[in-house]
């Protein structure tokens, strides 16, 4: 709330949620931010595409998408478990190891990309479960 004090002005009208093309519960993640629950705010707002429709219709003039972006950045930087392979993975990216795989992904349709995303392996989660 310190960075975006205007979120305290939320009147709980739910106009933001009703206007979201991603069907995100916008008011819910704003309330999580008000309570300081950055992790849950980031989780709820994950699919936000930063279109700004929520903000355009907000009577309290809240820029919801800025709050969601900050929450996701804070969660990624400070709250999520870091993969022990991060440094080596970044080096592989710099060395263009994944260029051909990226080219394949670019050619996929929306449903194929969504399936790929939903079924992905998250290294940090696997490490926490005793995996690699």
Explain briefly what this protein structure is.
This protein has 132 residues and is mostly helical. The chain contains nine helices and no strands. It folds into two domains: 75 residues, no CATH class; 43 residues, no CATH class.
Structure write-up:
With 132 residues, this protein is mostly helical. It has 9 helices and no strands. Helix 2 crosses helix 5. The longest helix has 16 residues. 17% of the residues are buried.
Radius of gyration: 18 Å
β-strand number: 0
Number of domains: 2
Mean pLDDT: 91
What is the share of helical residues?
55-70%
- Major sheet details: none
How many angstroms does the end-to-end distance come to?
38 Å
Relative strand content = under 5%
Q: State the secondary-structure class.
A: mainly alpha
Features:
132 residues, globular, 2 domains, mainly alpha
Write the layout of secondary structure elements.
Blueprint: H1 15-19, H2 26-34, H3 38-44, H4 53-56, H5 64-79, H6 86-94, H7 99-106, H8 110-118, H9 123-128
């Amino acid at each position: 709330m310190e960075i975006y004090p205007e979120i305290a002005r939320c009147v709980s009208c739910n106009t933001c949620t009703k206007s979201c093309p991603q069907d995100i519960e916008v008011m819910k993640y704003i309330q999580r931010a008000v309570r300081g629950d950055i992790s849950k705010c980031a989780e709820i707002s994950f699919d936000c595409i930063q279109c700004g429709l929520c903000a355009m219709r907000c009577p309290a003039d809240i820029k919801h998408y800025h709050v969601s972006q900050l929450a996701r950045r804070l969660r990624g930087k400070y709250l999520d478990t870091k993969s022990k392979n991060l440094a080596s993975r970044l080096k592989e990216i710099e060395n263009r190891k994944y260029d051909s795989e990226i080219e394949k992904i670019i050619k996929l349709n929306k449903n194929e990309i969504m399936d790929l995303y939903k079924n992905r392996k998250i290294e940090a989660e696997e490490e926490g479960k005793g995996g690699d």
